[in-house]
Amino acid sequence: MLGLIITLIIVGLIAGAVARLLVPGRQSMSIPATIGVGIVGSFVGGFLGYLIFGKDSADGLLQPSGLIGSIIGAIIVLLLWVNLAGRRAI
């Protein structure tokens, strides 16, 4: 269980950092927020992978994905974050 948590944190940090590098503009986020975006992005990527490919249904609809799926999911989550934060600031 501890190994899973550490793996989620490391993959979340990598996916969140890559997403922040790929999304244009300035995101004022802390390192824990970047890790959170990466972890949520991992689950979003797993959900999208299930919807697109229909595999791993035994694991359920909400599951962590691989690194590429995590990065794609983190980009989606970060774009939503930036759009919602922009609306709130106005």
Automatic annotation (TrEMBL):
Which stretches are transmembrane? 6-23, 35-53, 65-84
Its membrane topology: Multi-pass membrane protein
Q: Which residues form a coiled coil?
A: none
Q: Name one Pfam family in it.
A: Transgly_assoc
Q: What is its main location?
A: membrane
InterPro entries of this UniProt entry?
A: Transgly_assoc
| Presence of the UniProt keyword Transferase in the record | no
Any idea where this protein resides?
A: Cell membrane
What keywords sit in the KW lines?
Cell membrane, Membrane, Transmembrane, Transmembrane helix
Question: Which family does the record assign?
Answer: Belongs to the UPF0410 family.
The protein's matches in PANTHER family, at most eight in alphabetical order, are given as: UPF0410 PROTEIN YMGE
What name does this protein carry?
GlsB/YeaQ/YmgE family stress response membrane protein
- The source organism is Kineosporia corallincola
- Species lineage: Bacteria, Bacillati, Actinomycetota, Actinomycetes, Kineosporiales
